[in-house]
Design goal:
This protein has 711 residues and is mainly alpha-helical. The chain has 29 helices and nine strands. It is 50% helix and 6% strand. Bound molecules: zinc ion. The site of zinc ion (ZN) has 7 residues, from helix 23 and helix 25.
């Protein structure tokens, strides 16, 4: 099976999922595809031509380790100095460019939020809401004083469940828009099902609700079922954590209840699809509303869907057609007491960040320390900032974009995107393996690709969201519900192909296959990824490769399954697919051979789509960079040729240190390979061999026939 769907540049949601309920965003963006201005032209016109001495090389020479032979370990060569000099901060699971930029962006946001907190009398409703949400979270003494009282109504409701019908109603009332199968690829929800609202796989003219498997408190079924001693130890710690949370919330027989909850989740894990299965878009099916009862018997679907606001929906997409019936059956066969305990535990867990310190600390002990190996909790202001940014994503994003993302930067990156699209088009033209008919469909898709740069064209209206000063938990619960209802409203609205799925303040980028669109948020368009004061080699090696990565997803094994309108319709011939698969096997084998632990290797197939996108992105960025030179050699800077700087910038953009526990978690659940191996992607480009004189028997050397040649 070819893994599908890991479309964002990074997948960090599981890491933050314990702290945040990841929710998507909606906006009407009608960005036209940028005009075909070549990046080279604007670089030369606006920030000096590529030989201008005032442009820096953009690379961090001090952060390199020149004692390492580039052909032996290019990541260490480009990043070894930095790795030696940089400890992972105690409150982080990993540390690198990504985290530095995320921290920096948080600081900028904090200043903006504090400003808005001061302006409580502001007439701008959004700004007042941002300020109130943040201040309420930061008022720890008020939160301590309330104790668990804000949660009491929900817990009383659960205690009052007397029948399977009550249970279905309670499960339905908890459903939220908290998963995303194809854009941000978030498959995790502690609710029994996750809901995702977007275009139909077979019908891009309408939005449908997608139901996905859920119910687990740990990241994936493997955590419950794997025989590895590491996972067995985590299971013990998880059960102890459940017990501790129940005790804090005042439940009697906490040990007994924890055992019941853990046993129930283990049964859920038993019917769950694997991560690789989750990524196969072809397993999704559409069921009519009336088929749910017969195809997934057990749950009282009418009660569940009515409580979830979904009972009037005629057709559902079921992303996990085996797990949904499996979970439904458990709702009928497992004891009502176990289900009530499970609901109560997750209610407490979900609310924990907004409850007194004891809850916050216990939650961190498991999700931060045990699961990700983070020794210390992040400062409260950072968490408050993230929750605010999450609850009022575009209100915060608007503040950020207005202050930190000038129109000139937007124009420059739109030009760079156009440049990369042109380079990708040339690659398609030159492919020998792709049939002429497929090529023309690829070009059609390239023409309708919608690229969002920085922020959406229209901002989301938060006037329907009530933020009450001093009600930290209530604010978050209302924000989650507001987002859910907003997503459900899409079921009755025309499809918007300009919808954004990341906030402007997110340091990431994403491909949206059902919209044939890309989002490049403002926060990733800053140094070192994009530096107006650095030369072309640097900007193409870092930001160029990122843009190329996302573009290529529209045309790869996954992109080939979605046509120019976003319909799930394969536009490749059988031969095209066979060639692509065979070419991909070379890359899968390459990544299978990376073994960061004696007992654990990277999964070459789980990460294949992303690794192919990295190769493609680097290739088109390299093409575009060479084109920008117009045949003349680039100047030597900091002792490196232009080609060398291009590849070093690429590897430095993947600079990261990761704690062992976190690295294991990433390898188990992430569709992307760990950053240290992504940096080694260079070994698939002939240009890298020339630039660094890479020869056998250097460790990264690949004979020409073993280099991935896909695009
Ligand atoms: Zn990707």
């Amino acid at each position: 099976m070819i893994p599908q769907a890991r479309n964002s540049l990074w997948y960090r949601q599981a890491q933050t999922a314990y702290a945040l309920n990841v929710r998507s965003l909606k906006v009407n963006s009608d960005l036209r595809k940028p005009a075909g201005i070549l990046l080279a032209a604007f670089l030369m016109a606006e920030i000096g031509c590529n030989t201008a001495p005032r442009l820096s090389s953009g690379i961090d020479v001090a952060g390199m380790d020149k004692t390492v032979v580039p052909g032996d370990d290019f990541n260490l060569y480009a990043n070894g100095g930095w790795m030696k000099a940089t400890p992972i901060p105690a409150d982080k699971a990993s540390f690198g460019i990504f985290t530095v930029l995320a921290d920096d962006t948080r600081k900028k946001l904090l200043a903006l939020i504090q400003e808005s907190a001061k302006g409580a009398s502001s007439t701008d409703g959004d700004i007042r809401k941002v300020g109130d949400f943040y201040s309420s979270f930061m008022d720890e003494s008020a939160i301590e004083a309330k104790g668990i009282a804000p949660l009491k109504p929900k817990l009383d409701g659960i205690a009052g469940i007397k029948s399977r019908q009550d249970l279905a109603r309670a499960i339905g009332s908890e459903l939220r828009a908290d998963v995303d199968a194809l854009n941000n690829t978030n498959f995790e929800t502690p609710n029994l099902f996750g809901v995702w609202v977007t275009q139909g796989l077979a019908d891009p003219s309408r939005s449908y609700p997608y139901l996905m498997q859920g119910g687990l408190g740990m990241p994936d079924r493997d955590y419950y079922l794997s025989a590895s001693p590491h996972m067995a130890e985590l299971r013990k710690q998880y059960q102890a954590h459940i017990q501790a949370m129940l005790q804090l919330a005042g439940f009697d027989k906490a040990s007994e209840r924890a055992a019941r909850i853990f046993a129930l989740e283990t049964k859920m894990a038993g019917v769950h699809a694997t991560r690789v299965e989750s990524e196969d878009v072809h397993t999704a099916v559409s069921w009519k509303r009336e088929e749910l009862g017969s195809k997934a018997p057990g749950l009282d679907w009418t009660s569940l869907l009515t409580a979830a606001g979904l009972n009037d929906v005629p057709v559902f997409y079921i992303w996990h057609p085996k797990a949904v019936p499996g979970l439904s059956k458990l709702a009928a066969t497992e004891s009502l007491d176990a289900w009530k305990d499970w609901l109560a535990f997750h209610t407490v867990e979900d609310a924990a960040p907004f409850l007194p310190k004891a809850f916050v600390d216990e939650r961190f002990n498991f999700y931060g320390k045990a699961l990700s190996g983070i020794p210390e909790q992040r400062p409260r202001w950072q968490r408050g900032m993230d929750y605010t940014s999450n609850a009022l994503g575009e209100a915060v994003g608007k503040l950020y974009a207005q202050k930190y993302f000038p129109a000139e930067t937007k124009a420059k990156v739109q030009a760079m995107v156009a440049d990369l699209i042109a380079a990708f088009g040339k690659r398609i033209d030159a492919l020998t393996w792709m049939s002429p008919n497929t090529k023309s469909q690829a070009k059609a898709k390239l023409t309708t690709l919608k690229v969002g740069v920085g922020y959406p064209d229209h901002w989301l209206d938060y006037s329907g969201l009530e933020i009450v000063p001093g009600d930290a938990l209530g604010n978050d619960q209302r924000a989650q519900l507001f987002e859910y209802r907003r997503q459900l409203a899409k079921l009755h609205q025309p499809v918007d192909r300009g919808e954004w799925w990341m906030t402007p303040q997110t340091v990431n980028a994403v491909n949206l296959p059902l919209q044939n669109a890309l989002n490049f948020p403002a926060a990733i368009i800053q140094p070192p990824y994009f530096d107006a004061n650095a030369d072309a080699a640097h900007n193409y090696g870092s930001m160029g490769a990122i843009i190329g990565h996302e573009i290529s997803h529209s045309f790869d094994d996954q992109g080939s399954q979605f046509d120019a309108e976003g319909r799930l319709a394969n536009w490749w011939t059988k031969e095209d697919l066979e060639h692509f698969k065979a070419a991909g096997e070379v890359l899968a084998a390459q990544f299978d051979a990376y073994k960061p632990f004696p007992d654990l290797a990277v999964n070459g197939h789980q990460t294949l789509s992303e690794n192919i996108a990295d190769v493609a992105g680097l290739l088109v960025a390299y093409d575009a960079y060479r084109l920008s030179l117009h045949g003349s050699p680039d100047a030597v800077k900091d002792g490196f040729t232009g080609d060398q700087r291009f590849f070093i910038s690429f590897a430095q953009s993947w600079r990261e240190k990761v704690r062992d526990e976190e690295l294991r978690r990433e390898i188990a659940t992430d569709g992307h390979a760990p950053a240290q191996f992504r940096a080694q992607t260079v070994r698939n480009l002939d240009g890298w061999y020339d630039a660094f004189q890479v020869r056998p028997p250097q460790k990264l050397y690949l004979a020409p026939e073993n280099r991935a040649r896909i695009w």
